[in-house]
Amino acid sequence: MRFSVVIAAYNAASTLGEAIGSVLSQTCQEFEVIIVDDGSRDDTAGVATEFAADGRVKVHRQENAGPSAARNRGIALARGKYVSMLDSDDLWLPNYLSEMGRALDKSPNAGFAYTDAWALEETSGRFLQATTATLRHHPSTPMSGERFIAALLRHNFVHNSVTVPRTVFEQVGGYDPKMSHSEDYELWLRIVISGFDAVRVAGQLAIYRIRPGSLSHDETAMIDGLHAVYESVLQRHPASPSVKALAQARLEEIDRYTRGNVRIRERVRRELGEATRRVRSRWRLRSTPPPHVAEAFPNLGLGRSTSLRPTTKRHL
Fold this sequence. Notes:
Elements: E1 3-9, H1 16-24, E2 31-38, H2 44-50, E3 57-62, H3 67-77, E4 82-85, E5 91-92, H4 96-105, E6 110-121, E7 126-131, H5 132-135, H6 145-154, E8 163-165, H7 166-172, H8 183-193, E9 197-210, H9 219-235, H10 241-258, H11 262-282, H12 291-296
Parallel strand pairs: 1-2, 1-4, 2-3, 6-9
Antiparallel strand pairs: 4-8, 5-9, 6-7
């Protein structure tokens, strides 16, 4: 088995079918799909089971334990050389697996491969001009080693559609089950700090859906998540003194903010909210989908009430 695709799903009945469909339409067909239903209360399990007639699709149910535990369950069940993570409301372009496999095959020290993604605003049903690399402020110049680690410590610019060699999970472990926010960020840092390379695959190979409310966060939970990430770098990760110093500086920035005057924090929240609204108002939408997206998903990105199902063409 070349790829194991892990999809952790919680109350994802409205989007899970399209996510699975985008896997089944891959040009590379050497995969298994492991769907972990994390105690959903909707028809997530029913949607997943519809695809189980394809022997490569396996459905596992568990009591709700959070995204980290659900992904770890899928990773533990994986048999593939490479483990690909797909969120239950995201999509892959048909060449995602083939391009990831090609990049990882050429990179014996790779810890994970990641890519850019087109951003689909669900409210308007149209794609943004900016991709996730732009939205996440991905560094403009290639970097590796401690330069990459330092850049990643400043902010998480890795979109979550990643592929990881299974042997890397065996060496560094999976997602931290105690973390419910920023758990992916902590894992990417743990992998590169452990001495592995991050491989960026050119182009946009995924579709990230911006859903209503996805730009608003529980501020306390978000700060707690980042605090836990930097604490992990300081206490658990085999980081160099310079990397630990940068993690300490980031931790101190968070502590200064959380110890700040309540009135100041409220003002910052308001300013952040206003800034977010201004940014959204400036987002430019594409009048037509990107050509290769339109070929794979002919009804996607044309406006409201779009279908996300890919074409059913199979590739051998």
